[in-house]
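Hey, I'm writing a tutorial for new members on how sequence and structure tokens pair up, and I'd like a real worked example in the thread rather than a made-up one. If someone can provide the structure for the chain below, I'll link this post from the tutorial.
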Amino acid sequence: MSVHNPELREILVPRENAGRQVVRDFLAEQGVTDAEDRTVTLVTCVDGLVFDRLVNGGSVSSQEIRGLVAAALR
């Protein structure tokens, strides 16, 4: 439903920020050829994982983050 709500769509659009740049630079340094697309995917996955834990309780383990990073590097 969020894509049909202009206010939510505006909030959910990925924004350029320092964290995203760090991820993009890291992926590019690791030789990822489509670093921009992988950055969007990785940041979205991490955001989703953190959001899930905020809503459902618990914490995000470093192992979970490493798994997402490893997937982005493939």
